[in-house]
Amino acid sequence: EVQLVESGGGLVQPGRSLKLSCAASGFTFSNYYMAWVRQAPKKGLEWVATISTSGSRTYYPDSVKGRFTISRDNAKSSLYLQMNSLKSEDTATYYCARQPGYPYWGQGVMVTVSS
Amino acid sequence: DVLMTQTPVSLPVSLGGQVSISCRSSQSLVHSDGNTYLHWYLQKPGQSPQLLIYRVSNRFSGVPDRFSGSGSGTDFTLKISRVEPEDLGVYYCLQSTHFPYTFGAGTKLELK
User: Would the CA dihedral through A110, B44, A47, A114 be positive or negative?
Assistant: First the structure.
């Protein structure tokens, strides 16, 4: 059974950093592109980042480019999202998801950016 | 960025009825590899989104055949027939042809 379990969320002050993790199981992690998708409270879904199988290629929307870094450790079947210079508008539930097409999602982890 | 215009925003339905949700993109979603990366998801209250349809018309494993997707280019439709209580929630379309990937704003399917 495919499982994606996020961790690392919490309350953080504006301008500070936070690192999210996603532990994958039930499939060969190294064979798949992976992604982070977020959802602000009571809002829609927003794609945040994608990483290639080896980690050599990463993709971001302008809203997080230069502040967020997606990475992976295939030996540990783990996905990460390093979030720097956090803003209040980054407050959201963050999901990790397997590509292509996002057939599998984690349960999500809440990040609150507030002073 | 590709704008995904999803309509309607809210969709009242009677159980057993049939509904359609539209998703229109601001540019063609045909990828250079010939595929069209337009997908549909359902998010039930308090849950993560779940994939229903991938690449326009392919039902994901376990999705009932009451759900069907169609369309091409910039115009896509999700149809749900014989609506059941477990179908209620918010439906999203997603294009993953062009970076940045973009979602529609969502359609809330609710009981009349």
Answer: negative
